[in-house]
Amino acid sequence: MDCVFCKIVTGEIPSDKIYEDEDIIAFNDLDPQAPIHFLVIPKKHITSLAQIEESDSALIGRIMLAIQKLASENNLESYRVVTNIGEDGGQTVPHLHFHVLGGRAFHWPPG
Ligand code: 5GP
Ligand code: ZN
């Protein structure tokens, strides 16, 4: 599969990994937009949140708990979780990922 994040899962592309379990990995973003900026992804290829199915419910729930745990480990009390969907949503890597950004204040609405 010609997918950057699938290659990060297999190790073909190196990453600064901060968490891994059977179904999930998290790694620091290559181009951080905040003092803390990591990505949490399912190991299995899902293109975006628009493609999840009922059978992915437990996986998505566990990703949310991993986000909570990693945010806590990074001493983040305030932070932002983002998943971009499709071109106009700002998605550049078509493998579901949740950005976790912290360590500074964020604006709303986003750009
Ligand atoms: P998107 O724009 O799809 O929501 O986010 C993709 C994110 O993946 C971007 O923040 C980008 O910096 C990050 N990214 C793209 N390629 C790589 C890579 O090879 N390694 C890491 N660690 N991050 C990457
Ligand atoms: Zn993939």
Automatic annotation (TrEMBL):
UniProt motif Histidine triad motif: location: 95-99
Coiled-coil stretches noted in the UniProt entry, renumbered to this chain: none
Domain HIT: 4-111
InterPro entries: Histidine_triad_CS (IPR019808), Histidine_triad_HIT (IPR001310), HIT-like (IPR011146), HIT-like_sf (IPR036265)
Protein name, UniProt field: Histidine triad nucleotide-binding protein
Organism from which the protein derives: Anaerococcus cruorum
Lineage of source species: Bacteria, Bacillati, Bacillota, Tissierellia, Tissierellales
